[in-house]
Amino acid sequence: MSDRSPPRRLPPLNALRAFDAVARRGSILQAADELGVVRGAVRQQLNLLEAHFGVPLFDREGGRLVLTAKGRAFADSIGVAFGILARASAELAEGSRRTIRLGVPSAFAVWWLMPRAADLQAALGDMDIDIVPMATVEPLARRSDLEAVIMGGEYRPTRDITAIRFMEDEFGPVAMPDVADRLGLEAGVAALAGAIALGSRSAPSLWNDWFAESGHAPVRFAGSREFEDLLLAIGAARSGLGVAIAPRTAVGDDLERRRLLAPFGFIRRPAGYSLSIRSSDTKDPALVRLADWLSKAGAE
Which residues contact 129 (CB under 8 A, 6 or more apart)? Predict the structure, then answer.
């Protein structure tokens, strides 16, 4: 008699799709909209999945669904599995030509990646690169439609995700020359108290990070404006609205042409930028080529 156990029956695909959508969206309503079904159908699929495994995947907290530890680990694995299926389906539909779908923070795409897009395409040869801008960056585990995502800051990959660091990051306050003169920023960081601080919801902690990492005491700004995206905050600084906190890579041309000044210089962030891919794809020739190109371009 064989001592091998029979394979466990897999849960229904619709239940897995509903679970993946809720885990990524954080909401039954948003998951239902994505799947094109009513909320009751999503709840039914979640109940079916929990009954299948006999363990809770969500905690119900005041009407909200919060993933349990086991639920989060399962969501990460489901994201990887759906990503593999999505890529295999795309390759089958497209034929022999490979397309890499790369999620990129929209600001980073505009100021760093797109000016190098022709060089990247040349490095990829007969493979195409589909750059997907992300106003709000989501980890790869939550984006089954993407093969890789560029992440900035203190990103810690989850299980089944590999992060390949390819570039350092420097950031600091920037302003138009006449704004810097009017505020007297040459006198020191304390002069920022008279400024309108410009920030973004896509990178909400940059000002706090700069004060903490530069060793300067935080100041109480005269006012603040928060924009949806870092690109808009930098654009507002270019128009003279206030002082923005920005990566050097975003404003290099402005600094050279003296459209913007960096009165306190820039400080280096060790975390930098990384390419996150699924661990099962670390030997994929296309993604290896992409990672190699990013590492080379990031070191220049």
Answer: 99, 100, 102, 117, 120, 121, 290
